[in-house]
Amino acid sequence: MIETTDHQRLRQQVRDFADAEVAPRVADMETCATADTALPALIARQGWIGVTIPADYGGMAGGHFAKTIIIEELSRVSGTAGAIAQASQLGVAKILHFGTEEQKQRWLPPIASGDCLPTIAVTEEGSGGHVLGMRTTAARDGDHYVLNGRKQYVGNSHVGHVHGVVACTGGDGAKANRELSAFLVEADRPGVRLIPHQRTMGLRGFSFGDIVFEDVRVPATHRLGAEGDGLDVAYSSSILYGRPNLAAVALGILRAAVEETVSFSKQRHRYGRPLSQHPVIMHKIGALEQRLNTARTLVYQAVHRLDHGQPCDRELINSKYHAVEAAIDSTRDAVRIHGAAGLRTNRPVERLYRDAICTDAPAGTRDIQLYRLAEAALGVDRPQWSARFARSTALHPPTEDGTVLSA
Ligand SMILES: Cc1cc2nc3c(=O)[nH]c(=O)nc-3n(C[C@H](O)[C@H](O)[C@H](O)COP(=O)(O)OP(=O)(O)OC[C@H]3O[C@@H](n4cnc5c(N)ncnc54)[C@H](O)[C@@H]3O)c2cc1C
Q1: Pocket (CB within 6 angstroms of ligand 1)
Q2: Is residue 234 over pLDDT 80?
């Protein structure tokens, strides 16, 4: 699980980009009431949305480990930039896992080149974590489906070019497992309407808003997988991409908080010595460093397993839980160590705290992650999404006898 020289080169490249292109935009994104529509295109043009897309479709073929590096480094400078990158990288998952060869040929090359930003639109007012509670419908009409409904909190809602919409194909009442299906819906199709951007507590400038679908006609060839595969599309995307992606955003924010606090505590003097030499502050910095090291290990260990085609649902859940918890606890401590200075918007720690809190809900709150871990501990029989998909999309698939070849 050691970073290769290619990984180190990528890390430096993303860091240079974040310092040069993202950092100067942060102040504007914080104060502006609208979503930043230029930054997503800037990130996409680096080819980073296609990091897990195979080279045959023009992608980087870098896998989840490289994806994590990209998101972590962007988030270290701006949680918003990390959130933008991860949302469309997440939008790739459904096409890789469920797309036909024709769908892959059509959509993956423009995504890899940065010309097309995909999203995944699952959440609704009445569903959230309870995906089966959704009410958006897709009614078959000849060789088309007609979509009606409203999705909310869709990452990159206002900049996405193709939405991966999960809808009910079994009517609009209570849903059973096989009554949901997924569709690729171009953002410019008649009947697709954006609700104006709403400002949020954190991740300012990132559009995770609402999209309305009114009698949107979509060719049946835009369906992903079979009719009834919608729940699988939603869960596999969320578990195999959403959780590690949000863990990486949290990790980047956490690292920024530690670096900022260490630097501040060395500069600020109280009682004739730097804060960093007061035992109480040292103890707190030790706790920040401990959480960072543990989060980094858990996050990279989980995606390493994913890249090697190893079952790792539990590791993905655990790392998302820990990285988010560590980021929220540590950014709060960072504000505390800064004293009143931590409240001013000319320092980044209050922004880091607000951004960290925003990493909790997407791909499942910490309470939901604990619920899933409890199920694993109690032996509740649940589908293992990594066991189903990791092998076929792994960068370094295990050999037939199950041996894992190290990168
Ligand atoms: C930054 C961000 C990006 C997002 N990106 C996307 C995206 O790209 N696409 C998309 O479709 N959605 C996206 N979402 C939405 C996200 O997936 C949902 O927020 C998440 O699924 C939780 O749903 P909810 O917010 O409606 O919370 P709810 O499901 O309403 O949960 C509310 C509270 O109830 C608790 N709870 C829920 N169920 C149970 C239970 N069974 N037992 C006990 N407690 C429970 C939860 O832990 C939480 O505390 C995003 C959200 C954010 C904040």
Answers
A1: 83, 87, 119-123, 128-129, 153-155, 203, 208, 358, 361-362, 365, 367-368
A2: yes
